[in-house]
Amino acid sequence: MPTTxxxxxxxxxxxxTDGGRTKRADAVRNVEAIVAAATRxxxxxxxxxINEIAKAAGVGRVTLYGHFDSRATLVxxxxxxxxxxxxxxxxxxxxxxxxREALGRLLEATWHLTHRFGAVxxxxxxxxxxxxxxxxxxxxxxRVRGLLERGRAAGELRGDMPVDWQVSxxxxxxxxxxxxxxxxxxxxxxxxxxxxxxxxxxxxx
Length: 205
Prior knowledge:
mainly alpha, Tetracycline Repressor, domain 2, two-stranded antiparallel ribbon, 10 helices, 2% strand, disordered N terminus
């Protein structure tokens, strides 16, 4: 049954309540809570179930499925946001000047993002096509590759090994540090400097 219009102060009519706006605001809050919870949960457990994510978000399964029709749809949203936030954060890193120092800054910034999103990429690779998942590494890899090539040309970084291998070494160190933090082998506060120093020690000419 339609809502009966209520007369406003200027004589016009409008909705009797703001129920529609309230409902939309609640829906937005639920979506944000679900995505945030899914990011946290999947970062540590890429196999986390819908029930676990809903519980972490403080909503029921029915509410979650009201916004995301499948686990794959939710994972896609989490991955898309992680990619966008990663690109935005890394775009703010100063890559000018000495390539070794610039690489160090980029490594530290990348570590924080790697630690934050953790196994989200693993969760994405389980449900999304490989070509979509390749986007998760495309932007960061291009930035690293550009600095490696600059450093090699300047004679500051090793040129006696393939660039692709150097990129793989960097990715291994970043992910290894994240695992080490979760195992309690190093602290999250110590990790950025360890990642930077270990990588530069391996790649410096």
